[in-house]
């Protein structure tokens, strides 16, 4: 009898309250519903983002067909007049179109900067469509364009990799066969970065294995620093180096000496 009563009390003590069971069921349903909602929301956001990218690329394809296909081909495969754009990436399109170099106004040794022909939205659409054709450099992250890189490192890297064409002060310089390295003063940080990773015209490509994104940021910081600060030596004569300085001395300094000599000779007579 005692043993049976003990077992009965034990079973009763081990039984779960109906309220506790309902609470556990409710918690389980809430947890399951929350997880499902989160997954559904994430999938919906991804689908919406993918749809937006697709829509942007479709708009870019239409713009390309109307403005670029006559040279580059309907599928950007290239023609006798222009190279293929498959695999050049969004950065190349953003640079070339965003600086007005493309579409070209006329054939020449190289595409020159001119007023931009498209809006920012249209440029983004063109870049999105070309990027969809094959993998290539993407538009740089804003964190590398802030101009807060190491100035000393940027100056050294610029002198080693860029100054032989663009001049140590970024003023630009002449190349062969009518080509030239343009001045980097007034060029946006984004376009400088894109030029480094795409290599427009005669410029070599500096991928992340050659110059890291942090070092590219340092180079941009150096260029923006010298752009914002005047020459400590006084009149910079366009920062064109010994040619302009020698010409200045030859015309004005020696010319002044000759003029004074002629004046003294005439006065003595």
Describe the protein:
59% of the residues lie in helices and 1% in strands. The chain is built from 10 helices and 2 strands; from the N terminus they run αααααααββααα. The protein has helices spanning 2-14, 18-67, 69-72, 89-98, 120-133, 151-161, 163-166, 189-198, 213-228, 242-268, and strands at residues 173-174, 180-181. α2 (18-67) packs across α5 (120-133), α4 packs antiparallel against α5 and α8 (189-198) crosses α9. The radius of gyration is 33 Å and the shape is elongated. The N and C termini lie far apart (152 Å). Its main location: membrane. Keywords: Cell membrane, Electron transport, Heme, Iron, Membrane, Metal-binding, Repeat, Respiratory chain, Signal, Translocase, Transmembrane, Transmembrane helix, Transport. It is a multi-pass membrane protein. It catalyses: a quinol + 2 Fe(III)-[cytochrome c](out) = a quinone + 2 Fe(II)-[cytochrome c](out) + 2 H(+)(out).
């Amino acid at each position: 009898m005692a043993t049976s009563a003990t077992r009965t009390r034990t079973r009763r003590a081990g039984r779960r309250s109906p309220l506790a069971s309902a609470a556990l069921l409710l918690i389980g349903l809430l947890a399951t519903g929350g997880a499902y909602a989160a997954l559904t929301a994430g999938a919906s956001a991804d689908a919406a983002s993918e749809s937006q990218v697709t829509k942007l690329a479709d708009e870019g394809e239409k713009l390309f067909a109307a403005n670029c296909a006559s040279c580059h081909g309907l599928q950007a495969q290239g023609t006798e007049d222009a190279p293929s754009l498959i695999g050049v990436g969004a950065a190349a399109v953003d640079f070339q179109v965003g600086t007005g170099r493309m579409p070209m106004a006329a054939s020449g040794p190289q595409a020159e900067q001119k007023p931009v022909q498209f809006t920012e939205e249209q440029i983004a659409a063109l870049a999105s469509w070309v990027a969809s054709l094959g993998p290539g450099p993407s538009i740089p992250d804003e964190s590398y364009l802030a101009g807060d890189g190491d100035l000393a490192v940027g100056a050294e890297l610029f002198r080693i990799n860029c100054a032989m064409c663009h001049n140590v002060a970024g003023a630009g310089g002449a190349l062969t066969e009518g080509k030239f390295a343009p001045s980097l003063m007034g060029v946006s940080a984004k376009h400088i970065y894109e030029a480094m990773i795409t290599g427009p015209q005669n410029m070599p490509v500096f991928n992340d294995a050659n110059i890291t994104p942090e070092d590219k940021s340092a180079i941009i910081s150096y260029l923006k620093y010298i752009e914002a600060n005047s020459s400590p030596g006084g009149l910079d004569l366009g920062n064109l180096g010994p040619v302009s300085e020698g010409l200045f001395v030859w015309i004005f300094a020696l010319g002044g000496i000759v003029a004074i000599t002629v004046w003294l000779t005439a006065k003595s007579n």
